[in-house]
Design a protein that fits this description.
The protein has 126 residues and is mostly helical. The chain has helices at 3-13, 21-44, 66-79, 83-102, 111-118. α1 packs across α2, α1 packs across α3 (66-79) and α3 (66-79) runs antiparallel to α4.
């Protein structure tokens, strides 16, 4: 999915028209990038070097997890609202967390990167 498709999905999930994106653009873009960082960090063990900026940008993640980015952003849009909105947002939070937990932790890393990330160093240094 491109950033534009993620924006459209976010607008639909929050019950807004795609044409209304300009009303939410600053907040929505920040939340989409937060979702991207969250999923990417789980997959790669580090944060992405760049944020999603252009409508043609594609997250550097497997395509099947792209909706988790929009789900997390939807949760962030709803979490600060009244209890009714928060309850609507929990469904999207649960969906994003389910997708993230189904991904292998550090699955995008090479074997060498995985071994070095899980190794404890300096345990016996004086």
């Amino acid at each position: 999915m491109t950033l534009l498709e993620l924006k459209n999905l976010l607008m639909i999930q929050t019950g807004n028209d795609v044409e209304d994106y300009t009303d939410y653009s600053t907040q929505a873009l920040a939340y989409l990038n937060e979702g991207y960082r969250r999923v990417y960090q789980h997959w790669m063990g580090a944060y992405p070097d760049t944020s999603l900026v252009l409508d043609t940008d594609i997250p550097a993640l497997p395509a099947h997890v792209h909706p988790a980015i929009a789900d997390w952003a939807t949760w962030l849009m709803y979490r600060n609202g009244n209890p009714s909105k928060q309850n609507r947002g929990y469904v999207f939070r649960k969906s994003a967390e389910a997708m993230i937990s189904s991904m292998p932790h550090h699955g995008g890393m090479t074997e060498e990167q995985r071994l070095s990330a899980s190794r404890f160093t300096g345990l016996y240094d004086a």
